[in-house]
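Hi P.,

Sorry for the delay on this. The queue was packed all week, but I finally got your sequence through. Input first:
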Amino acid sequence: MPFKSTEFMSAKDKKAVLREWQCFIKGGFDRKDFTTRLYDHLHLHCSFIAHFNINGFYGTYFKNPERTLEFLKQFDRDYGYKSTEYGNTYWFKSEEYHDLNSELANSLEPYKSKIYAGLKQKTREMKLKQIDRLKSEIEDIE
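Then the structure:
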């Protein structure tokens, strides 16, 4: 898909963001693949707040599988492209960035069922560990 340059992002930069997004997804949301350029696009043009900096943003959405799933649903057509933080679709319909944002969503589609299943399994494991920890704490009280 050809990208159009905007006041704040060239077509070349849009292509780079898309490549970095695809790498980030395929790499399992590894921090090393979460680039400054990708972070900047997400918080400036996808209705995410900055969370103070790139590390705060990463920690908010990619350290916990439940939050990663919540993040990804914004880019999922089955959930209507609603902003995770604001509940609207302005970010997706934006004239300046619709070309890139729709490609971000499209590139998630082939991987989403596998990614979602993996995130749900990690969430389940995390919650079971929490239950075990709480049981242990209760036993210590008794």
